[in-house]
Design brief:
Layout (H helix, E strand, L loop, with lengths): L9 E7 L2 E9 L5 E7 L10 E3 L18 H4 L8 H6 L12 E2 L5 E2 L3 E8 L5 E7 H4 E3 L6
Parallel strand pairs: 1-9
Antiparallel strand pairs: 1-2, 2-5, 2-6, 3-4, 3-7, 7-8
């Protein structure tokens, strides 16, 4: 099964003078899917892919920890969880992961057209999605998880 061609992806960042400055958090992605961001007229990724971890709130035993993965092929490190969240919930299997960040090396033009390549982690099947930054942007700081 290919990734959803119409995910609820959102970019959370603050615009300044027609650009979005890092950090840019990405939310609304399909669990188990990598998203590569490119300018519509380019072939190069703007940053490392972002990944949305799968989480089962009803059965935490189904959540994949390091002991349930094949490290050579299935390990994706989630963003660091702030210490205050660990104090409140010391069982990591019950926590939602922090939203991934699009780690850009330069500001992103707010009027840019993007090509997103969504890739299922386990099957490597792809879906190409075309969006504008304006369609994805929530002009606000990244959300807390």
């Amino acid at each position: 099964v290919r990734p959803d061609p119409n995910p609820s992806l959102k970019l959370h960042g603050v615009t300044d003078g027609g650009t979005i400055k890092p950090p840019i958090a990405v939310t609304g992605g399909q669990p188990g899917v990598f998203y590569r961001f490119r300018l519509a007229d380019g072939q190069d990724d703007l940053a490392a892919p972002v990944y949305f971890h799968q989480k089962d709130s009803a059965d935490i035993a189904r959540n994949k920890g390091v002991d349930a993965l094949v490290v050579e092929t299935a390990l994706v490190v989630a963003p660091t969880i702030p210490p205050e969240r660990l104090t409140d919930h010391p069982n990591l299997a019950t926590l939602n992961p922090e939203p991934p960040s699009l780690l850009l090396t330069a500001p992103l033009p707010a009027d840019a057209k993007l090509t997103l390549v969504a890739v299922k982690a386990q099957t490597r099947l792809e879906t190409v999605i075309n969006r504008t930054v304006a369609e994805l942007l929530i002009d606000a700081p990244p959300p807390a998880a």
